[in-house]
Design a protein that fits this description.
Radius of gyration: 21 Å
Helix content: 55-70%
Mean pLDDT: 77
Order of helices and strands: HHHHHHHH
Number of helices: 8
Structural class: mainly alpha
Distance between the termini: 75 Å
Low-confidence stretches: 121-135
Number of domains: 2
Strand content: under 5%
Largest sheet: none
Oligomer: single chain
Length: 153
């Protein structure tokens, strides 16, 4: 039995919008509907790993999601093509092909979604930089540096 694509698409959407509690429920539903095969085990492990990576700190430079620009459709399409080639490669075992199939499906769903209102994974640091820039530009705003200079005097 193939993995229900509607549940998987919903799972990816929940991950993108960082709704992890609901994503966990969806992942549990998927697990219950999957047969116990090596391919499905690889597929499920990829889905679970995606959630762990997305949930982790955005500064983790080793996770694929932290490097991924969700708004760049060309890059998403290229990754989908690359993952699909691994799925077709018969040198990989069933577990690996299932794993790459999950990533291919993820790229397909992300490519079809309108992600213009979702900040990139490094958006938190960009927002912080903009706030700091605003504070630095406002000469009336007191800064911690002013506080330390007053203490020294």
């Amino acid at each position: 039995m193939p993995v229900p694509s509607a549940l998987v698409a919903r799972y990816f959407q929940l991950l993108v919008y960082r709704q992890f509690t609901e994503a966990e429920r969806e992942l549990e539903r998927l697990k219950q509907k999957m047969h116990k095969t090596e391919w499905n085990r690889g597929y499920f492990r990829a889905l679970y790993g995606m959630m762990l990576a997305r949930r982790s700190n955005n500064n983790d430079s080793y996770t694929f999601f932290s490097k991924l620009d969700l708004n760049d459709k060309t890059v998403l399409h290229n990754y989908k093509r690359e993952f699909s080639e691994h799925v077709k490669n018969r040198l990989h075992g069933d577990f690996d092909r299932g794993f790459f199939s999950a990533w291919s499906d993820c790229m397909r769903v992300l490519n079809r979604m309108d992600l213009s209102n979702v900040p990139a994974t490094n958006g938190a640091s960009t927002a912080l930089a903009k706030k700091l820039e605003t504070v630095e530009a406002d000469k009336n705003q007191a800064t911690i540096q002013d506080f330390f200079e007053e203490e020294k005097a």
